Amino acid sequence: MKDPATLLQKLYELKQNDIDPRSGRLFTYIYETGINELRELALEAYRLFANTNALDPTVFRSAFFFERELVKNAMRLTNAPNDAVGTVTYGGTESIMLAVKAARYKFRKKYGFGKIPRVLVPVTGHPSIRKAAHYLGLKLEYLKVERDDKKLDVDDLSEKLDKDVALVVVSAPNFPYGTIDPVKEAAEIARERGVPVHVDACVGGYILPYMGRLGYHPPLFDFRVDGVESISMDLHKYGYSPKGASIILFRAPEYKEGTIFVDLRWPGYPLINNTVLSSRSIAPLAAAWTTQAYLGEEGYLKLARDLLEARDDIYRGLSRLGFSSLAPIESPLLSLSLDSENDVFKYYSWMSLKGWVVGLQPKVKDLAPYNIHLTIMPIHRKVYKEFLKDSEEAINMPPPRELIDLLDLVQKDPMSAAQRIGETALDGILIAKVLESIPKDYAEDLARMLAVEVYRR
Ligand SMILES: *Cc1c(COP(=O)(O)O)cnc(C)c1O
After folding, report:
1. Which residues contact 188 (CB under 8 A, 6 or more apart)?
2. Which of 175, 202, 243 to mutate to test the pocket of ligand 1 (most atoms within 8 A of CB)?
3. Whose CA is closest to atom 6 on ligand 1?
4. For residue 294, what are the contacts with CB-CB under 8 A and spacing of at least 6?
5. Does 342 share its domain with 256?
6. Is residue 171 domain-shared with residue 80, that is, in the same domain?
């Protein structure tokens, strides 16, 4: 057997190549508070419960406790009725999978198995909704959003909503532009026709309620709205838990019934699942509970205040550099454009070279130009000055040589550009295949995105 010290050294080496979320340099992926004591505590909880299995809570009884407490708090935050029910899942994708499965169950109870049910979602909806429809055999149909505010166009919903629709999904907020769909209007239309609405509050579930308490008054998106039958909210986003924790809530137990999978017929142990995953560690639940208990209501409020201040400072600073928001600012998510797309690429490239991880979003016909996406977190309160200083430099510098070469090549020959990108960063053959299979103007856009993406690696 190998020497543990050598192996540990290898692990530390690998970790060195990963970006450190505590540095505050990430504007996506990890939701960092900047409270080291909390991070240590949550990771200790993670370690303590790492080698457990939530599959059988009669053996690992702590799973009951953590789940009950986490669901109770989520219900409180979303003003759920007393008989609402919920499940802790591994992530937003799994929560949404269960919401879609519950809707399919309800649909089949009503109409049998003859019809293929449809799911309606604004084009800004998260891909996990499409993924769930794909996995579960439902047909996904996109709804238009308004050009100005990037919110669901309710007339389009009204038009497309018929008896084949099993579920309408709206976002609070959507990830790309950070705006909150008109949940109330959508739910009214859907309710009239007996169709449940799922609110994807994966990113908003643990921040919008606190923004409300701080006087920002986000529009109603929770169970106070009749017709909202389920809500997904990610503990591992603004709940500040380590990865692996999300919640799906249902207004009524009949929906949860549709998420349960039982097999008592096979020769092994009785299998009863209310999640997609079966064997899984209790660690994320333990860490999420510990995080919530540590912060409490006051902690979450303080963090919300911190991050909103950071958001406003960053937005003000970037506005001065020429950025403008693509949509009204209703959440901690910013999508910002510049007059010229090439300047967006240049900014993104230099910021990556300076060690900042910001998002780059593609242009979408009739909706948005290329833009920079920032997910603001409490840690950014501590680093925003440095971020703005680097931003100013990035805006005022000429584009890096490598970017110019690549963008040139993209224009002349997207395929070989993709190949070159592939060689340096990604799977070149796969990308070439994808590019061949889509229309040329899309291929160029994609190649351009990938070219810029290279700087992150
Ligand atoms: C993050 C996110 C999801 C999916 O969550 P995962 O945890 O990555 O599976 C769904 N919807 C929105 C709006 C999100 O931001």
Report:
1. 226, 227
2. 202
3. 92
4. 38, 41, 42
5. no
6. yes
Which pair of structure tokens corresponds to residue 73?
A: 């708090």
pLDDT tens per residue, range 203-219: 999 999 999 999 998 99
Q: One-letter amino acid identity for 302?
A: K
Q: Is the CB of 91 under 6 A from ligand 1?
A: yes
Does residue 126's CB lie within 6 angstroms of at least one atom of ligand 1? yes
| Domain co-membership, 321 together with 239 | no
pLDDT at 457: 47
> In this structure, what token pair is assigned to residue 390?
């680097």
> What domain range includes position 420?
303-448
Residues 247 and 215 in one domain: yes
Buried b (16+ CB within 10 A) or exposed e, 194-224: ebbbbbbbbbbbbbbbbbbeeeeebbbbbbe
Q: Residue 375's domain is classified under what CATH number? A: 3.90.1150.10
Tell me, letter by letter, the H, E, C secondary structure of 130-163: HHHHHHHCCEEEEECECCCCCCECHHHHHHHCCC
Is the Cβ atom of 239 under 6 angstroms away from ligand 1?
no
pTM of the model: 0.93
* Any atom of ligand 1 within 6 Å of the Cβ of 175: yes
User: How is residue 236 written in tokens?
Assistant: 């591992």
Average pLDDT, the chain: 92
Q: What is the pLDDT of residue 39?
A: 97
Tell me the C-alpha distance between 375 and 389, whole Å.
18
When divided into structural domains, the chain yields a total of: 2
Between CA 446 and CA 453 the distance in angstroms is 10
Give me 435's structure tokens: 């590019």
**Cβ proximity of 368 and 325 under 8 Å:** no
Task: Label residue 201 by pLDDT band (50, 70, 90).
Answer: very high
pLDDT tens for each residue of 57-78: 888 999 999 999 999 999 999 9
Spatial strand order of the sheet with 359-361 comes to: 324-325, 333-337, 371-375, 359-361
Q: Both 210 and 95 in a single domain?
A: yes
